[in-house]
Amino acid sequence: MSAASCLLTEGQFLCSICLDVFTDPVTIPCGHNFCKACISEHWDRNVPSQCPNCKKVFNIKLELLVNTFISEMAAHSSEQQVVKPGEVPCDACTGTRLKALKSCLVCLESYCETHLEPHLTRAGLKKHQLIDPEENLESRMCVKHDKLLELFCKTDQVCVCIHCTYSEHKAHDVVPLKEGYEGKKAELGKTEAEIQQMIQKRRLKIQEMNRSVELSKEGADREIADGVQVFTALKESVERSQAELIDTIKEKQRETEEQAEGFIKELEQEVSELKKRSSEVEQLSRSEDQLHLLQSFTSLSAAPPTKNWTEVRVRPPSYEGTVRRAVTQLEETLRKQMKKLLELKRVQQYEVGVTLDPDTAQPWLILSDYGKQVKHGDVRKNLPDKPERFDTCACVLAKQSFSSGRFYYEVQVEGKTEWDLGVARESINRKGQISGTPKDGYWMIVLRNGNEYKAFDPNVGLSLKSQPERVGVFVDYEEGLVSFYDVDAAALIYSFTGCCFKEKLYPYFSPSLNKGGKNSAPLIISPVNHTE
Fold first, then answer.
1. With a threshold of 0.70, does the pTM exceed it?
2. Residue among 506, 509, 508 at smallest CA distance from 402
3. Number of structural domains the chain divides into
4. Which stretches of the chain score pLDDT less than 50?
């Protein structure tokens, strides 16, 4: 096939109608070849049917059959790609130039598959050095000696020919091109490795910076939340203090008005009495009855009983210091709020990972797959009665134990009407009913009936301003301290102090009974949203 194709020019595989390589080529009686679709369409548009090349007319409808030989030749020709912009063309092709497969450093020409065949089959040409297609083969020749650049001068870092080594590159460190190539390739490999290492370092730096930005955003979000919490409390305190200030001032004004109204009423009564006496005196003074005037004078001449108003004053109340005292109260409120927030931040630094231990869980309890949630179920599971398992009370301990230092964790209690939280020592009795007091190795607070909070110390009622949705538990082992916090309010709920710990302590949880679905929400061990 290759030999046959060498006898034909590339133009002989092109249809004269579409000017492209034959597709399903057919030969008409005059001997010319066309694509089947091209000639069929041409004859459909032109009557009578004639050859587009020689114009011979055919009066009968011809049956067009595909010429298999030309089809195979065209297919082989099409396999050799026509050169595209940017590709190296075959120097031996005439007409349509095909893409070169190799370039010869001896012939200084590039060849397509067809014209490359002699270099692959003829003994003399087989010795020629073939390389990947190179358009500018002259660049591989020494411009001074017109010889192939087949050596590398390490001294001047340039490619040279053999004649160069006898002239300007004499006594230089010259090596074969392959050796120079391998050396430079090794350097490039090293350079590439260094570049990749630099890229990796910068990618790690990008990750580090992105993480810093994320941490910064998380910190900003937390600080905003803290700020909103503090300023909300401050705003509420301001509004409350303002209302109290206004009420105080209004009350003093009301008292002043009531006092003045009493005095005025009394004065008006005296004025009325005096006016009445004045009228009587005037009437008597006009009387010409001498006896009547003399008899009535004594009773009318004396002034009616009145109050001495000389020292009586209605003095405006003093408001001095009222605003200052209100502002001082605000400052105290803010100070207390910041103190609570800073205290919570301090203990949150001792956060530990806590997961529930299924081997300690009472059989009615349902634990989540990752050991972060627990609730009371409606069915008692058939579990082995291990010594460490609670059998009666709806309790479970954590897997983690602590015998020194400080630790802190948070539990979501939102939606529950009853729960128990705290810590317990390792040797507690886990069978039957438990008292839950420090005497028996428990330090815990509980919620009962939806709004009754207690500390089993042994039974202290707790008065909370709001119902906690998230409870923080902090333990200082050496200090003997167990504290409980309302996380959202940043408020201390209760502290057990002066405790004496001598055993391992385990975080303790009880979701309490389901109560027919009223207390079905789980206790959830939650990650701490650090405020620093």
1. no
2. 506
3. 2
4. 1-7, 531-532
